[in-house]
Each structure stands twice: as C-alpha cells, then as structure tokens.
Amino acid sequence: MSEVTLGQYYPGNSIIHRLDPRVKLFATLVFIVLLFITNNIFGFGLLAIVLAATVIASEVPFVKLLKGIRGILFILIFSAIFNLFLTDGIILVHVGVFKITDQGIYRAVFIAVRLIFLVIGTSIMTLTTTPNNLADGLEKAFSFLKVIKFPVHEMAMMMSLALRFIPTLIEETDKIKKAQMARGADFESGNIFRRAKSLIPILIPLFISSIKRAVNLAQAMEARCYNGGNRTKLHPLQYKMRDAVGYICCFALIAVTIGLNISMEHLRLLLLTFM
Q1: What is the DSSP letter of 143?
Q2: What is residue 4's predicted lDDT score, i.e. its pLDDT?
Q3: What is the pTM of this model?
Q4: How far apart are CA 79 and CA 35, in angstroms?
Q5: CB neighbours (10 Å) of residue 113?
C-alpha cells in the first residue's frame, strides 16, 4: 500500500509546482487522451520526451514516481501477458496452446508503455498540486456548469477530501495489517482464495474506521457552520504568463501528435499500396 502515490503531495518550488492547477488538469487530460490515440513509435517517443522534460522540471525524485508503477505492477504484467498470448498475427513462437505473434508483442509493449506513462503523468499532477489547490482548480474549471445548477463546489470538495484521506487510509491499513500480523495473522501463504479471505480482518476494521472518520468530519463541518455557497478564497486563482505558456505547449503537443498519427497512417497506406 505504501507504493500508492495518488493523493500525496511533494513540496517544492519548481515551475510545475507554480503552475495554475487548471493548467495541470488540462495538461494531464490532454496527455491521457493523446496517450490512447497514439499508435506509432514516433508518437510515443514524443510523449516520452515531453514526460521526461516534465519530470525534470517538476524536481520530483524519479524513485518516488517509480513507487506508483510498483503499485500497478500486477495489472501491468497481466495486461501485457493477456495481449501477448491472445492476439492474432504472424506466429513467432508456438508452445502447446500458447502462441506468441508479432502483433501480440506489439500490443503488449504498447499497453505496458501506456500504463507506465499514465501512472507517471497523473502522479506528477498530484505530487505537485496540493489537494486544496486541486479542488479550487476543479471548481474554477467547471464553474460554467453552475448555469445548469450542477453542484460544482460540492463535487470539488468531495474530490479534495478523497485525495486528502488517501494517505491517511494507507497509513491506517499498514497499522491494521501489522497489528493483525502481531496476533498471528498470515497474509502471504496459501492460494489466491485463502489470501483474499485473509484480507477480511483488515478490510472490516478499515471500513469501520473510514465510516467513523466520515461521521466525525461531517460533524466538525456542521459545528463550524460550513456552507458550500459563495465562499471566498485566501489565495484566489489567477492566470500568469507561465500558465499561458503551459496552454500553448499543450496545444502544440496536440497538433504535433495528431500530425504524426496522420503522417504515419498515410505512410502505412502508401506502403500497403505498393506491396
């Protein structure tokens, strides 16, 4: 559980830290969309360069970003194996009922790269943005929905509280696990069903503790007469020159990536025509 980086903030004063949260939200959304529409090695190379430059500019230790990848290692391996053995194409290796094809290797590598880039890209946003700033950015970015009476402030507040308590719940999970292990609980041995059953002594106390925390938080907010109406901000969000540069870089990345995709598709069709 300690490998989860979502909701954790890494203090710093880098250019990425100082960007407006709305810019970081937009950039993360653009990166995710481009990541899933890119289907060639040149596009992934461009995204890799952009991601590496962002990591360097954020001044977040790369080891901390790798912890997020360790958290999805099982999903990463399962997805790669699933695509490797169950994709049709030219058979390269055939052992029993299993076969490895050229398209299987292609898809396995691409899905692994997509997941790794996805985790690193989203981790940079949460590691360089405090939950409060992220909530303010969401509220500002979706303020146009107030026209249709959508509870924008409440949505942003819920997401802020969820992100705020992720590290707390992770820490409490570790404490409960260690307490159960001190009482003789075994979470490592046995098959997958036995391991799943052994998680019950962790999940039940964690579930009860989460409900108590939610009730205490609700009572504290009511005792302070909290109202999600027109609340003022101590540090209202204001765009600066660096934010404009951030938006320009995002639109430039969109244009270049789409151009690469179109060019590679035309090249592929041209090669098929001559072949």
Answers
A1: G
A2: 57
A3: 0.76
A4: 16
A5: 17
